[in-house]
Amino acid sequence: RLEEFLKKEVDLELSTLPDFEERIIDFSEVEQLMNSINTISAPCAPVINPQAPNAATGSSLRVCWGLFSDDTVECYQLCYKPVSNERHSDEQAECTLKVKETYCTITDLLPNTQYEFWVSALNASGISPPSEKAVYVTAPSPPTIKSKKIRSCENAALVCWESRDINPVDSYTVEL
């Protein structure tokens, strides 16, 4: 049946009302309305702050950044990964967090380890370029005192300890 129908020659004649054919559509009001709508552009790249003193523990880091423009921002996307001296450092897993504030405390990190951080701003129009990358370092683990090697006399004491950190520690503070 379909084949027979397609073989037939169909002559369609459309009729329109004369007033429709002569009608002129004025889009000036629509154009004015569209021009009056303020569009929001994607935000500029945030600026990540260098690591602040006392912003680290052995397992956490507090990262701060700023946005130096009047851009509208709904949230931030904070990315980080451990810094590696190996050639395949780009293959290490990145972690990404969505954050409402301009700071974030990241937990469950390794002690005495460098982490690379960068942040982007997001709004309804899109995502900003990422900030420059910043390197933060977690605090080292506390050393283990070798209690069997402690020696003392009236005017002196010898205390020995060992570090559990893989990376070298710059210095130790001994408190009495």
TrEMBL record:
User: Could you tell me the gene encoding this protein?
Assistant: Fsd2
Chain ranges of the Fibronectin type-III domain: 46-142
Q: What name does the UniProt record give this protein?
A: FSD2 protein
SUPFAM superfamilies attached here? Answer: Fibronectin type III
InterPro entries in alphabetical order: E3_ligase_FN3/SPRY, FN3_dom, FN3_sf, Ig-like_fold
Please name the Gene3D superfamilies in this protein's record: Immunoglobulins
